[in-house]
Structure formats: C-alpha cells, structure tokens
Amino acid sequence: xxxxxxxxxxxxQPGGSLRLSCTASGFTFSxxxxxxxxxxxxxxxxxxASITSAGGTTNYADSVKGRFTISxxxxxxxxxxxxxSLKPEDTAVYYCKARHRWGIGEEYWGQGTQVTVSS
Length: 119
Hints:
single chain; mainly beta; 7-stranded mixed β-sheet; globular
C-alpha cells in the first residue's frame, strides 16, 4: 500500500522557519523524483520545488529561490522542504508528490500539511 505523509506544518511568524517532511512507503522511493506543491485559498496548486530521484538536481519556483531548500534521504525514504525567511504569502497547504524517474505509472500525492505565516 502506497503512502505519502507530510508533517512539520504549523503557524510561524514572518521571517521564521519551518521544515516539512514527506515520508514514503509502499514503493521504491529511490526511483522517484519528489516535488513539493502548495495551494493557497482561492488559488491553483503550484509547484514549489522538485528534486530528482538521486538528489542530484533541484529546481525551485522563482518566488522561493534563495529561501527554500528541497532535499531527500533515500535511506529514510523521506523528502524535506526547509523553508526560511517565511512570508505571509507562503501561507498555503503544502503537498508532496512522487513521480517515477522514467515518468511511468502513477503519481502519488500526500494529504497535505498547513503552513500559516502570520504575526
């Protein structure tokens, strides 16, 4: 049974930091690229960051470059999103997604974790 579970969300003040985790089970994690998306109320879901299956390549949305870092631990079957210098506009539900490195088969999504940046 495939499972992706996000954790680490919460309420943080502007300028603060959070680290999100996405723990996977039920598939060969090291064969999957991982991505973080977010969806704010009334807006479409957007790609925040992605990392290749071996972790060698990362990509970021312009809005988070220099503030967020995506990483992964293929031994722990976990992907991370370190978020620094958070802004109110980063408030959203954050989701992780797994996609096979060859683009085959299903994509897997987590259930999401809420991040709220507010004073």
